[in-house]
């Protein structure tokens, strides 16, 4: 029954027997048999099946949250029994934005796994907002202003943006002495309108409205923006967690270092770890979030930049 419930949730999530079979590395007939057996046990059809489409029936829609709860309760009971042994164990599913995950979550997970040898981790890196319940994720790292929700959120850090450029660009174009001077420079910008917290805004400049900077290079990829700045394409306005190593090495120069220590304005984006309340694996989720917060530090290590005092 447990395997059948797992398979039911997987098929409901992916909308395909063959996709679930591929992910589980089994024959399609194996997936079909489990769903057939579950439908026979329940006495109801859970899916409308046709050559072109697979969709939940009304009974399937009603059963879906109950199936999640059944497996959640079972996993919670199992975790509680394991916790009695004193050592956390089992699977933890984590999702994070691609660039942040590669730069800051993978290293934290490595030390987390060394600390807790009986825990396994599935890490999913994506820039899409993942539905924790539907995708059965335990912890999600989210960057931005969190909307109101039922999720339990822990702030790991505030996002600090810093304006910088390569020495080669500054030698060629000159160093802007004020934010207003950026209007006369090639600025590396996004190809689509940025979220409100990520615009080129400076306290007391342009009536505190975003500067309408321009440049010849635009992309929505953070690494693409960073690499262009390193190649001297233009001025970059980027989160410190992206550019910190390049500022320390001198490959990039902070144009207005006070940005790294300026008080955060209302509505400043944050970096949060979120989890579903009452979900199984809650103990492991809390352990990982606490570990990640300790790895980042009360003052995030990426905000401790040359020429700045992060305590200001």
UniProtKB/TrEMBL annotation:
Q: Which PROSITE patterns match?
A: HTH_LYSR
Q: Which UniProt keywords apply?
A: DNA-binding, Transcription, Transcription regulation
Annotated Pfam families: HTH_1, LysR_substrate
Keyword set includes Transcription regulation: yes
In what residue span(s) does the HTH lysR-type domain sit?
1-57
Q: Which domain of life is it from?
A: Bacteria
The text of the family note is:
Belongs to the LysR transcriptional regulatory family.
Protein name (record): LysR substrate-binding domain-containing protein
From what organism does this protein derive?
A: Pelomonas lactea
Q: Lineage from the top down?
A: Bacteria, Pseudomonadati, Pseudomonadota, Betaproteobacteria, Burkholderiales
